[in-house]
Amino acid sequence: xxxxxxxxxxxxxxxxxxxxxxxxxxxxxxxxxxxxxxxxxxxxxxxxxxxxxxxxxxxxxxxxxxxxxxxxxxxxxxxxxxxxxxxxxxxxxxxxxxxxxxxxxxxxxxxxxxxxxxxxxxxxxxxxxxxxxxxxxxxxxxxxxxxxxxxxxxxxxxxxxxxxxxxxxxxxxxxxxxxxxxxxxxxxxxxxxxxxxxxxxxxxxxxxxxxxxxxxxxxxxxxxxxxxxxxxxxxxxxxxxxxxxxxxxxxxxxxxxxxxxxxxxxxxxxxxxxxxxxxxxxxxxxxxxxxxxxxxxxxxxxxxxxxxxxxxxxxxxxxxxxxxxxxxxxxxxxxxxxxxxxxxxxxxxxxxxxxxxxxxxxxxxxxxxxxxxxxxxxxxxxxxxxxxxxxxxxxxxxxxxxxxxxxxxxxxxxxxxxxxxxxxxxxxxxxxxxxxxxxxxxxxxxxxxxxxxxxxxxxxxxxxxxxxxxxxxxxxxxxxxxxxxxxxxxxxxxxxxxxxxxxxxxxxxxxxxxxxxxxxxxxxxxxxxxxxxxxxxxxxxxxxxxxxxxxxxxxxxxxxxxxxxxxxxxxxxxxxxxxxxxxxxxxxxxxxxxxxxxxxxxxxxxxxxxxxxxxxxxxxxxxxxxxxxxxxxxxxxxxxxxxxxxxxxxxxxxxxx
Amino acid sequence: xxxxxxxxxxxxxxxxxxxxxxxxxxxxxxxxxxxxxxxxxxxxxxxxxxxxxxxxxxxxxxxxxxxxxxxxxxxxxxxxxxxxxxxxxxxxxxxxxxxxxxxxxxxxxxxxxxxxxxxxxxxxxxxxxxxxxxxxxxxxxxxxxxxxxxxxxxxxxxxxxxxxxxxxxxxxxxxxxxxxxxxxxxxxxxxxxxxxxxxxxxxxxxxxxxxxxxxxxxxxxxxxxxxxxxxxxxxxxxxxxxxxxxxxxxxxxxxxxxxxxxxxxxxxxxxxxxxxxxxxxxxxxxxxxxxxxxxxxxxxxxxxxxxxxxxxxxxxxxxxxxxxxxxxxxxxxxxxxxxxxxxxxxxxxxx
Lengths: 657, 351
Fold this sequence. Notes:
The complex is a heterodimer.
Chain A: E1 2-11, E2 14-20, E3 25-29, H1 36-48, H2 62-65, E4 75-82, E5 85-92, E6 101-106, H3 120-125, H4 129-136, E7 137-139, H5 151-156, H6 164-178, H7 186-274, H8 283-345, H9 348-367, H10 374-403, H11 413-447, H12 461-497, H13 499-558, E8 566-569, E9 575-579, E10 582-585, H14 591-609, E11 617-620, H15 628-642, E12 647-651
Parallel strand pairs in A: 3-12, 7-11, 11-12
Antiparallel strand pairs in A: 1-2, 1-4, 4-5, 5-6, 8-9, 9-10
Helix pairs in contact in A: 6-13, 7-11, 7-12, 7-13, 8-9, 8-10, 8-11, 10-11, 13-14
Chain B: E1 2-7, H1 22-45, E2 50-54, H2 65-76, E3 82-86, E4 103-105, E5 112-116, E6 119-123, E7 139-145, E8 147-149, E9 157-159, E10 170-174, E11 180-183, E12 189-192, E13 208-215, E14 218-225, E15 231-237, H3 244-255, E16 263-269, E17 271-272, H4 280-287, E18 293-298, E19 301-302, H5 315-325, H6 330-344
Parallel strand pairs in B: 1-2, 2-3, 3-4, 6-7, 7-10, 8-9, 10-12, 15-16, 16-18, 17-19
Antiparallel strand pairs in B: 1-13, 5-6, 11-12, 13-14
């Protein structure tokens, strides 16, 4: 492919500029700032268009960077030849890529041509705009982007970013995160955790089956405990029955005792009552009788005393009367005597008197009565008493007869009354006791359920107690086993309780494991394909680059400019040289030599990159660092290259013409 | 009048979506249990004679003892209500140790009947069991757990036509987790109550129970949503996003209007340039506090016009061509491309 001519309508600082290109090497002498780069970009823009960009950075936004300084139509045209045919491409550029225009004409006929589309450059060279730019435009600017020393940058389209090895390192690091050497890595960690969780779930399942067994055992023991409790109840019932039997017996016995007591009391009462005869006196009656008796006694005593008194009175009276009578009789005697004497001795009258007196005395003595004034009173009283006594005595006797049958061994009424009273007290007490006994019996019967029928033979209480104790021991043992089983079951259930959470966790782990595994597969595939791409890239270009590089070096060597015995190009396009028996890296050579080597490498690369149409080269003062001799070599090289391709070389110093 | 509640597929004590943090999953399990308790309370307050549980009350044959105890105690605390329970395909085993008297089961191979209020509730765990003769003068409910079919019979299959004109007022079904109602004949309405709560993002929408009222010879059916939380899957289109802020704004827009108590899965979709920063941990940090649970799934595809790289001589272009030529499945291809480009760009590999 060769450039024929171009017309810049407006492009950056260039406006209304035309240029016709010649074949082979052409040197264009332009001062600094003329627009050599602008021209190169224009040529690229005609072939590839201008890329759309939203960047406000002019370095990154060529569309904005090369807007016409003077306004006007932003674009131009380029004429070129491909093989036997020639074309003219016209493009204009707008704010947006969609408003750009493209037109291709047959250069000879000026008729529109459809041989190429707006992707003219790609279709011509098989390389995109960026690759074209990096490989066809060679400058000496210090910008590493355009520095043709860095073939890797051209190939990898990277600026100061990691290259293939850097990318592979990142991938490797990420891969190792998932799966490293041995069993390290996130995926093995997950697998371990999954296995552990599955084991825990299995253990949980085991706990589940164990818990079923535990529950079964618990049910059995609980059933057993229920049976023991039932037996305990039965034994307690038996014991209760026995106790009740005993109680009933006791009740019956008590009832019998009470009945017996009542009977005894009744017997006693009856006996005592019988001892009273026809009727049983009351205490009051007895007391009254006793009082009567005492009264009787008192009255009798009184009567006796009265009688005694009367007797005494009488005796006294009698004695007095006797005395009197004696006296009287004495007097009588005396009198009589006196009378006699008198009569005899004195006067019979006197004697008579005395005799009369003696008679009187004798009569007095005979008739003398000692006046007992108290005596009638006493007698009246005695009579009164006697009557009362009689009545009372009669009453008492009647009372005694009725109440104290004959044959009682106590004849004396007082004693009889006392005995009666005592007996009555006894009787009353006996009756009270009987009443109490009756009341106690009633109360007892009211408060106690008397056995209606024979409750059967009594159970051996001790035997029952022994069985109860034995059963209680069994119950305690069973309760202990139940408690232990419950504790075990609680633990098993607690483990099972975690089952759902563990399953949730396991699902989460498996999801993560699946995701990680997929990611690992992606990374491995990426490594594989990226490595493959790198190999293809280097293989594709390296062979060609090596061959062409040798060719260009040979050209240099032919010019007797041997600065090395051997130059080598590594797979990563690093150039090294063998000089004086040692391998020297390119940086160990002079700047001019480096530039020359780099230029050869860039040309070799360009030859390799463009497999379809070979493009022209635009060189922007590439040999500023060369000395005169080397410059001559370079010129020769350029001329040699110019025989096979179109080279447009801008220089800004006439010394390099 | 007899009021009954119909519910099913509670899947109590189940494992939740694995993306849910374990604490949140445990909380959801507790909420499911609580929801059952509240359902029973609502039924009691509504004067319901009973609750029909059409299968899968528990998620497994071995639920945790705590969950079983909770359910048992809840049922036992309402002895005046009958709980007619059908075991489903997930909870075949008898897990109740101490059966409350008001918890009524159905036979495994033939239809059994429980009278609840004025209603005869029939049920069988075998969907292929012969149908009983039902009295036309009674309210009849049939409980089954399985998938309705047009006519295919088999285990856990319910051929609806077999239940038409059989004096059935209501066919209380379980197995599907979304509410669905079908008129079987003039008299019979068939309904899946759906799950009481959604458990995963494949169960979005409303969840609840069915309120049944039998009176005047008719059965009134009314779905009552009662789920505490809803699950949503929303899409956030990142096609035009180029920066963190763009992505955040797109997600913000997608999440507008959703309730804080809900669970949301955000699908990041669209074709985005490989250098568009899709930082899911950062997005989670920004948006997760607003909801009970929020997860992101990156479904974006790299915005790669392969034609753009046809002539790219760089390693990046070579790599893209190599990947495209490798014949990988689309998802793998996109992920490998993104991974490789991130590595070449020196960015953090998000894979």
